[in-house]
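Module 6 notes. Inverse folding takes a fixed backbone as the condition and produces residue identities as the prediction. Think of it as a translation problem where the source language is geometry and the target language is the twenty amino acids. Below is one complete input and output pair. Work through it position by position during the lab.
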């Protein structure tokens, strides 16, 4: 999915709006997590697994264990849906 035509300025995290759409805990590498998720055409469940694994331990107020537990819940749901 190509988001290049969206006219959204997500900035670099300097304002409250930037923090909402471009939080630093989702970009520890060279690309945004949501850009990777979109590029790989991941569904909701797999996308959330990637999101929580990538940010694990980086979001203020949430431990690494919290994020990995959330990822596990999404993995389990994806497996459940595949088994239907």
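Target side of the pair, the amino acids:
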């Amino acid at each position: 999915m190509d988001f290049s035509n969206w006219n959204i300025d997500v900035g670099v995290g300097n304002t409250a709006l930037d923090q909402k759409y471009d939080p630093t805990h989702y970009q520890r590498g060279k690309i945004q997590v949501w850009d990777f998720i979109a590029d790989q055409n991941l569904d909701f469940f797999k996308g959330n697994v990637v999101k929580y694994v990538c940010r694990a331990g980086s979001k203020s107020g949430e431990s690494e264990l919290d994020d990995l537990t959330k990822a596990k819940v999404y993995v389990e749901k994806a497996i459940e849906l595949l088994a239907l």
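Reference fact for the lab report: The helical segments are 16-21, 33-39, 44-55, 64-82.
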